[in-house]
Write a structure and sequence with these properties.
Elements (H helix, E strand, L loop, with lengths): L2 H6 L4 H4 L7 H6 L9 E5 L6 E7 L3 E2 L4 E2 L5 H4 L8 H6 L8 H6 L9 H4 L4 H4 L9 E2 L12 E2 L9
Parallel strand pairs: 2-5
Antiparallel strand pairs: 1-2, 2-6, 3-4
The protein binds iron/sulfur cluster (SF4) (2 copies).
């Protein structure tokens, strides 16, 4: 067996490790940078149904689709929910394209995931990210949030 043959058989970490087994670098790299989870959601008090809006969190950068202060996000945005293996398995609202959800459900990553494509731009080129589709929450009064309800966050037709 030559070295090329050996290398070709090495599976990427997201196929061989559980969420719990990933180290910090692997865990962070699993985020595809889509920004979908940084959009505000509305919950129906009676039914518990959750709907998405295209209103982006105050710390969300609409151009990079990344958090502007990731290290301090919890202190600055108390509603921000850091993902953990436990929360990924229990949250019902994670977008169907979210890499954490896919791995938790035993699915592979899509071609446009930066870990697969080796290109951080493909999540945008494939139309998966929220780039160009958000409004900043600082501009929208809470009583108007219902006017910004969207459904495309739950689409997974980007395979
Ligand atoms: S939805 Fe998942 S993959 Fe997309 S930004 Fe949020 S954590 Fe990352
Ligand atoms: S604080 Fe940062 S990571 Fe959390 S929802 Fe806002 S933009 Fe996203």
């Amino acid at each position: 067996m030559d070295s090329n043959e050996t290398a070709s058989r090495v599976e990427p970490f997201w196929k061989t490790k559980t969420l719990e087994q990933m180290n910090t670098e692997e865990w962070e790299s699993l985020c595809d940078g889509c920004g979908r989870c940084c959009l505000n959601k509305l919950e129906d008090w009676d039914t518990g149904e959750i709907v998405w809006t295209n209103i982006a969190c105050t710390l969300f950068d609409p151009h990079t689709c990344r958090c502007r202060d990731y290290s301090n996000r919890i202190a600055k945005v108390p509603d921000c929910l850091p993902l953990t293996p436990e929360s990924v398995r229990s949250l019902t609202w994670l977008p169907p394209t979210c890499a954490y959800r896919l791995v938790a459900e035993g699915e592979d990553l899509y071609w446009w995931h930066p870990l697969v494509s080796k290109d951080p731009g493909t999540v945008h080129e494939a139309g998966v990210s929220v780039r160009g589709r958000t409004v900043p929450e600082d501009d929208i009064p809470v009583e108007e949030y219902e006017e910004f309800v969207i459904t495309w966050v739950n689409e997974d037709s980007f395979k």
